UniProtKB/TrEMBL annotation, chains A, B:
Stated name of the protein: Hydantoinase/oxoprolinase
Organism for this UniProt entry: Pseudodesulfovibrio hydrargyri
GO MF terms, alphabetically ordered: hydrolase activity
Domain Hydantoinase A/oxoprolinase per the UniProt entry, residue ranges: 67-323
A family per Pfam: Hydantoinase_A
Length: 349, 349
């Protein structure tokens, strides 16, 4: 083996860039991961620099290849997905000019060289779920992969070792229940509920950007402060007390007028709506499978894997955290890790 | 003690009449229960005869007192609740002329002699939940009683041994989340969902009376055929196969076009909506209590006690079946049993 054998997996989302580095030696493969918040829609010109910094953390200069997945092309700072895909590919090339980079074609599941992406840029939009699914199907040929991220949830059926999802574009996937636009950190609670319980009434919510699901999950003990990795809605801290004050504004109240118990009641109702939404979408996905192919196992992945595990219980299905212990936080970068692993199968003999 | 010491508890609902008989001897009290389906709204003139038959099963002729609760006054065969209450009281008097009968005043929690009901008939409408709540509060001073019946669910906070519910009329209770108009047998699934998953799509439902929640719960294994005590929507049997054929019609399909797995998927989505509805209503009720009075325990009662226990888990609360083992089916007649017990406290020294 040469000195430069590492593979860098990249997953460029609209709010976070995530990376995983895979190396192989005589004892097998080892993985390291890193991620950084980056609001691509605010200023795409920062992307190349952020990728360079992320690459430095993983010593990307000693890698030979990169495997790229993305969702950031949907950002409205790009006029079209086509423009977004091409921009992202350009930024990756700028940050890692020395790496042989491939991008996953979501329509075929195959890897394409970076310089060929411009031929069919839409084949590479929102392809990160396919990397996760292809990787998971190798070890779990029959399962329902539910990857709950910071803003979205992917629900991907695996059957007979194949990816059995119907949708390929985000729109098709939303339509089929394979993509649910809600996650555990940056999603706005006001997209999940029209009313919440407040002192015995059902109170309508404000359609402002006052709080995030991270506030809900922090208050319910589903995530720790260290997991609150997105920027807060008000720029203040990530303590339960700060979360309480933000979430109180969901009903145009504040930290003086609503107690912690009041706000926790609201938070539970919001979480209940999230769980119901994921459960119903999963039922839609399951209903689309031939009976003989309906899996019995949910693979719960992502920073919101706890949502997936709870949905599995509601579905009457077994569940397992994937790829491993949710406390290790490696799941947060599942698509990047999966991309590196998948590419390694092609380039490592 | 005289020969005639038994107390007959009665709960006259719109679709079922339920009775409990309480006796006391040197060893304590013993209870027997009985119930019968009776669609009061179809023909109220059958009520007195049905009560007589029910009384015969419990040997009511050897009772001295009766304790009456009701909900059947809401039937639209009565022009008003006033008319309904008076009619029901008349039928009870006709069936049990020899019993000293009292009726529970839902506004005060006190027992009033049958011949005084006409003074304020609305004080006695929909009073059965109050009997259950007063009875439960004696042994569980701080709890949330969730009584899931065939068509409705009562969610009643008990605090400091008092009934802490805010609503007194059905309308007030619906408004506060203390009454949810959905149960586990005769409720129509089309009131819970606008769409269900069908082969990968979300399909709109038919607003017909094709199936009941009993079909849903039978197919999911939540109830046994013996628990399917209401008439079926199509007059056919209570087997899983017959339930499947009824529920398929919810999306205008039939037993030929949808498989058991297809229909079970739909059933799960309907049950999920029921659980979410009960959970959210319970959160509304809890949100109305002073913080220091929010209970940690759910008392799960009624033929749908399993729904209440599952909702408790979603609320992060402990739960206990009330008054006892759900398999004994005594819970089905909780208000009648509670009424007899409560009256016994007043008339047995």
């Amino acid at each position: 083996m040469s000195d430069r054998m590492g593979i860098l997996g990249l997953d460029i989302g609209g709010a976070n860039v995530k990376a995983a580095r895979l190396d192989r030696d005589a004892d097998g493969t080892t993985a390291k991961t890193a991620s950084a918040p980056l609001e691509v829609w605010r200023d795409p010109s920062l992307l190349a620099g952020e990728l360079t910094a992320l690459g430095r953390r993983l010593d990307a200069g000693t890698c030979s290849h990169a495997a790229l997945t993305m969702t950031a092309e949907l950002c409205d700072s790009f006029a079209t997905k086509r423009e977004g895909v091409n921009f992202i590919c350009g930024a990756v090339h700028e940050a890692f000019p020395g790496l042989a980079t491939s991008v996953l074609d979501v329509t075929t599941g195959e890897w394409v060289r970076l310089d060929r992406v411009a031929d069919h840029p839409l084949h590479f939009a929102a392809n990160n779920w396919m990397a996760s699914a292809l990787y998971a199907a190798r070890t779990h040929p029959d399962a329902l992969l539910i990857d709950v991220g910071s803003t979205t949830t992917d629900i991907i059926p695996l059957a007979g070792g194949q990816v059995a999802a119907v949708g390929r574009t985000d729109t098709e996937r939303l339509d089929r229940g394979e993509l649910v636009y809600c996650g555990v950190l940056r999603s706005n609670p006001n997209t999940l509920v029209r009313t919440v319980p407040v002192r015995g009434s059902l109170c309508r919510v404000a359609d402002e950007r006052f709080s995030f699901m991270a506030d809900v999950h922090l208050l319910l003990g589903n995530i720790a402060e260290a997991d609150y990795t997105c920027a807060t809605a008000d720029g203040r801290g990530t303590t339960p007390e700060a979360a309480r004050m933000r979430l109180a504004r969901l009903v145009c109240a504040d930290g003086e007028t609503l107690s912690m118990a009041d706000v926790v009641c609201m938070a539970r109702a919001v979480y209940e709506a999230q769980l119901s939404g994921v459960t119903r979408a999963a039922l839609q996905v399951l209903s689309g499978l031939d009976e003989a192919r309906r899996p019995g196992l949910v693979l719960a992945a992502g920073s919101g894997a706890f949502v997936a595990a709870e949905a599995a219980a509601r579905l009457g299905m077994a569940s397992a955290y994937y790829p491993g212990d949710p406390k290790r936080r490696q799941e947060v970068v599942l698509p990047a890790l999966a991309a590196a692993h998948l590419l390694s199968l092609e380039i490592w003999p």
